């Protein structure tokens, strides 16, 4: 059969809010044109994030009922630990309440002022946690990522030449290097095993550990199976094991490829790293056998991690993203290519050629999509990554993107047909998208709370 179907049927439904344009105009104005400030009940299709927004399976819901809520050494913890060890092979495993808690403790225990942490591209919480302790988060994306419209494979790779140069210059100030799979800020693009292996070889010569930001490890593994020579016949779990075997540790948000609504973990091999991590974990997250999660969450994550590695699931997941991407390409809508593992990224600058970076085209596009169909995406452009100096001068971001992230197992093909129609309508009338200006902003992470005004 050619048709790739959702490899599940639906046993419980949740009503979607259906709103009128008039109503949306009112809501958007009240939210100061910032879609983060809208109520979810005013949104029809919510593509703000793929984090914690997925649907759990019947097996996960059943596992929840098996949660052992013992404070220490629960059965659920053992199941969680066993599953993660089976996939990652790491010696030490620590649950955390979500990915950024793992990042925070890792940064607090391993970094000091003046240190440098290279990565293909840091996610914003990873960057913020590194900067919070006075260290530098250094992005080294592959030059392949430079052309966002080229159909090049593995644009998520880390730039090995740049990494070698940084290691030669800064060896003493690099406590560890990271690789983010898939590279979220770089368009959800995957990292090849060849690239991870080569980065590990460079780092190993200098004794620098490699930490995988593994949030979307299963989606990345599927890209390796599809694209990397020699892996077509490998199972996803074998590919994932090979990815983890090249690393010394991993941070994970189980809200992505854990198919859970909350949770995360940190894993590593080094006893000293583990000892320091454990001590701070107890102080701020909880005892090391629950780490800020309920026993039932540990159960749901253990099942979710296994389901994320099912080939039928990944085939469907990638087909859904590809479905939206290919239809936008046919309609001439500029997007980052190839389609990412968890999202389609629209090139808002190309979408709105009449607007410049100082007009925040990503804000114009997110608001237009909301007004058209109650669809919520997120700006990844000069609001999120640009800088505002004290005198109000704006330094724009290198790109103006709008991310449409796919919650896992939530929306069906007709939901995406609806999204395509909304984008198509907005694209036809794109010359009418107004410029926006910021009327109020916070000194950091301004995108969450900024107020905008058109004109
Ligand atoms: N690393 C990456 C690559 C991420 O995409 C995220 C979260 C995190 C770490 C942090 O994990 O949210 O569990 O603390 N990304 C979400 C997103 C929020 O919308 O892309 P967390």
Defining traits:
Aspartate Aminotransferase, domain 2, Aspartate Aminotransferase, domain 1, 455 residues, 15 helices, five-stranded mixed beta sheet, single chain, alpha/beta, binds ligand F0G
Q: What do these coordinates show?
A:
There is one protein chain. The protein is of the alpha/beta class and 455 residues long. The chain folds into two domains: 21-50 and 310-454, Aspartate Aminotransferase, domain 1 (Alpha-Beta Complex); 58-308, Aspartate Aminotransferase, domain 2, CATH 3.40.640.10. The chain is 39% helix and 13% strand. The protein has a five-stranded mixed β-sheet with strand order 2-8-7-6-5, with helices on both faces. A three-stranded antiparallel β-sheet has the order 9-14-11. Helix 5 links the parallel strand 3 and strand 4 (136-139). Helix 4 (99-110) runs parallel beside helix 5 and helix 8 packs across helix 9 (236-245). The longest helix is centred in the C-terminal third of the chain and has 20 residues, at 311-330. Ligand F0G is lined by residues 49, 51, 98-100, 123, 125-126, 180, 184, 213, 215, 253, 255, 264. The modification N6-(pyridoxal phosphate)lysine is found at residue 256. Belongs to the beta-eliminating lyase family. Keywords: Lyase, Pyridoxal phosphate.
